[in-house]
Amino acid sequence: MKPRWLCFTLPCLGPLCLATLFAAATCAGAQQSQRGYRIAGVVVDSATGAPVPHATVSVFQDAEETQSTSGEDGRFVFSGLAAAKYPLSATAHGYVREGYQQHGAYTTGIAVGDGLDSEHLVFRLHRQAVITGRVTDEFGEPLRQAQIILLSFDSGTGSRTPSDQGRTATDDLGEYRFPHLLPGKYYVAVSAHPWYAQTELNSATNSAESGFSANGRSSKPNVNPLLDVVYPVTFSPNATEGRTAEELILVAGETKQADILVQAVPAVHLHLTNLSTDENAQINFSARESLFGSLYEAVNTVSGQISPGEYEVAGLPPGDIALEVMQNGSQSRTSRTIRTNLRGSDSLAVAGSGATANVTGRVILHDQDESPEQGQVSLRNENNQNASTALQQDGTFSLSAVQSDTYKIFVNFPDGEEFIEKLSATGATTHGREVTISGAGDVQLLITAGQAEGELTGVAKLDGKPTSGVMVLLVPETDENLEENSHLDQSDSDGTFALAEIPPGKYKLMAIEDGWELERTNWSALQPYLEKGQPLEFSANEKKKVVVQVQHLKK
Amino acid sequence: MERLAVDTFRTNLVSDSGYFMLRSFPALATLFALFASLSCVMATPAKQAESDRFELRGTVINAATNEPVSRALVELNVPSGVAQLSGTDGTFIFTNLPRGQYVATALKPGFFNEEELGRGHAAKIAPAKIPFNGDLLLRLTPEGVIYGEVKNEDGEPIEGIRVRVMRLRVVEGHKVIDPEGEGSTDDEGAFRIANLQPGRYRVSFMQANRGIIRYVRDFNRKQEAEQGYASEFYPGVRDGESAANIEVKAGAQSQVTQVLKRQRLFEISGVLRGGDPEGAFHLMLRDASGDYLPENMKIDQKRGQFQIVGIPEGTYTLLARGLRRNRAAPEENKPMLSATRLVHLTSDVTGVVLALQPTNSVEIQVRDEIPPDGSNMLHQAVVRFVSLESTQYSPAIQAPIMEGERVTMAQLDDIPPGTYRVEATPNQAGYVVSLRCGRTDLLREDLTVAAGAALPPVEVTLRNDGAQLNMSVMDENHRRGASVVIYSEEYPRRSLLVQMDDTGSASQTNLAPGTYSLIAVEDADDLEFRNPLAMQRYLGDATEVTLQPGDKTSVRVKLQATQGLPP
């Protein structure tokens, strides 16, 4: 199961933010149990098998946490529980805070009820790894209140996209600490703004701040160039690019020190042209800095208009950035994301100078001739350049000055992203959910958005017995992007699992023991298991229940 | 040679400890006030020839050690604003400045400049008059730090304890406690709270996973006795009044170790009556030291049921506030209902019935005895209810309300039950002759507001035939930064604090007739001049003066040493 508490604890390590998030949650209370089932077991060190005394073990009923402390023999017990499935977590001084049999965002939920054994759990707790360090600025002084980002790459997906494992801030000594880490390979980076920096526009007249430090009190720019500086996101020990970042490989029980030295560099002033000259248009900018070419970190900038259609954005770091340009006209709201590598102050034409097309279209809902009243449609090319606009009340949309390229179409409704069931175009060619626009001219799109509300529940069995902790994977039958289109769960203590939000289509279902070691987003890694995979076909919003045979991991 | 006031001041006082930063500085205070409101007027260099340009040299120094501060940002408020970082020797030079007066400010993380230290009065900021031939000294006071660790009885670190630091200070003659910083213990039980100005602080500790409110339909009695940590102050005491006051000096680090004991925690549960099923209510628990603690609770809005869990033994006030929906105008929902209950918690308390009652309103009547002067000015007073149980609540209203040329009665609504200090301040030149609520003389006594009982109006009488008092401080060497307390033993709440000017004198008009004790001190920042207990020890050396209506009296006042906060 994918317990809710994990969604909270992973991005923020501080227990304070936990409290805030839970405070907002409203949940139905758990049923009062007359029979009173128990969850009991022993907490042991994952390496030595020795009992861990004084461990804090928690069960969660909805968002409500109940804690218990393990005894000198590592034993813990919760009693008076109603028949249900409970996520379980544990931590102890010097250990990781983790879910029961946790793999990434998945844990084994403990099912309690008649005929279920929930009293002989062995909770293997991993000794923590710790990363600490000190951040120093270019004057050798501690950098305080700097944001430290902890990153790692998920081995299970073999992905080159790093994931954000947590954040913390430096104290007045410039020091930070990430405790409770699982052994693995990490990177740390610092995102900060020089405390003394003064970002002002060189040429623009009307400025708008997106961050702090802009001293807008002057009418004439008179900034000391030594103060018009930024810190690029910097990895330990002093790398401003992911590829030269220090790899921090930690084993259980290890503490590594990763100091970071930041160096202020002149801020880049970007001169943007070819923007809307509509007097009523409101143009806003939001810049993000690239980490490892994919993850993005927000940058505080100052921007302002120079003349109609011409703007300046100041306070940018050199390097790879994504600049989102939002134009709020009287009729429409469009946004474009430009990805570029900044070397120094430069001029950039937002709409490009090559042939552009005007794209109009309409979004309709599956099986209905109706259009959604609210939503957004986005075109994204291979370089992740993005153009998007809000849907009109009749489901139509219009994007001007779209450059020739192949784009993937995305549709978002207020309650989440929808899948594209059908796409047709006049003035352009389509393939699946992609549209290829070549040359100037008008393009018309008709997008059918379908709901992906299919659900699959079932039991994973090995030799006829329900098996807990196995990886359950539903993959599309056709050759598609596995990272985007597969569905994943871990079986709970009674062997059950649940997958949701499945779009219509043909799939294969696999349950693999110790499957978490597989690179599951790689078709060739899955090849040995596909043959015994269980074929399933989902129609729109279909709910299915199955028994799946567990396969052993093939080495 | 033109030397800056700040510079002269240093030569006077630099010998007597590094504490001179905190002393008052009247001449500059006056100038600063002018800057705050009229900065554009102050910084108006005359138009002149290019050749008529000057340099401004200076040094940023650490106020505690007198050592230079390198890499401080120095800003000069010339019209377009210029800034630079001080060098490794703390020095800076601004060039090409036209004639005029400028304010130079130094900034650096971990330090406070004079403006940041300014407490209500006397921000000590020096304008530099250009041309300026000296070395302009800008002082930065280093921060204090409170750090330490939290352990359990077995000596093991406790992670995730929320640590709060509160500063004790005096505002308008009354002691107040303001939250100043917050941190949380790490896996080693360590915490560190920096950026503290010199002053007195209390430190409190509480479990972090508190303040979770859940709206549910079903309540389950917990099965086992809950264990946890109680909220505590350093050094291991439950109420704020017994807490240690930690003196944090400029640049100093204070270490604190707290041992928290796991203890039995209890619940309070019950039901609210008299609420609006379609409205909403919320509950608060106030501990004996007047602190509202974030509690974990379950609430059923429709049925009025509540359950607050995880509370340590102690005496608490349970407060409920209800919202009654206005069906005719749903936007005008007002919190209009309240209930309070004192709870002594030594075991689980269940079945509490809280009856919500409409909150009190009080009418404010101003009796204006100020003779008309031909202008159409309305004579008003600001009336404030300061809750003595909670520093977080002090509603105020200006009375009477101006409405065209007519006078409308003012009414202060939604006053929850409790004890209040009621203050009235006239807006125009005048004084408060009397301030009453029924039989309560609010110039001397606190007002108790009981649930459901109607309050008589608060009556304020204003006059402007008060006396004028001209004061000067006797001790010539120290009178520059002095303040004088005009203390009334009869009505301590009428007492005033007057800042002396550059020559050590000041004048106060419209004093209520009566007898006053005049007390001059160099540093009045921490003087609770409206608290008779705190003022008792100054009365022996005070200058006494009795004033009749319309008097004009001049008095010389002897300077006394400040003795800090009373225990």
Low-confidence stretches of chain B: 1-49, 119-123
> What is the oligomeric state here?
heterodimer
The biggest chain-chain interface is:
A-B, 53 and 47 residues
- Radius of gyration of chain A, rounded? 27 Å
Strand content of chain B: over 45%
**Separation of the first and last Cα atoms of chain A:** 26 Å
**Major sheet characteristics of chain A:** 13 strands, mixed
Question: Approximately how much beta-strand content do the residues of chain A carry?
Answer: over 45%
Overview of the molecule:
The complex is a heterodimer of chains A (555) and B (567). With 555 residues, chain A is mostly beta strands. In chain A, 5% of the residues lie in helices and 49% in strands. In chain A, strands 23, 24, 27, 28, 30, 31, 32, 33, 34, 35, 36, 37 and 38 form a 13-stranded mixed β-sheet that branches. In chain A, strands 39, 40, 41, 42, 43, 44, 45 and 46 form an 8-stranded mixed β-sheet that branches. In chain A, strands 11, 12, 14, 17 and 18 form a 5-stranded antiparallel β-sheet that branches. In chain A, strand 2 (56-61) and strand 3 form a beta hairpin. Chain A starts with a helix and ends with a strand. Chain B has 567 residues and is mostly beta strands. Helix content of chain B is 6%, strand content 49%. Chain B is built from 4 helices and 45 strands. In chain B, the strands form 11 sheets. In chain B, strands 14, 15, 19, 21, 22 and 25 form a 6-stranded mixed β-sheet that branches. The interface between A and B is large, with 53 and 47 residues.
List descriptors.
heterodimer; A: 555 residues; mainly beta; 13-stranded mixed sheet; 8-stranded mixed sheet; 4 helices; 46 strands; 5% helix; 49% strand; flat; B: 567 residues; 6-stranded mixed sheet; 5-stranded antiparallel sheet; 6% helix; disordered N terminus
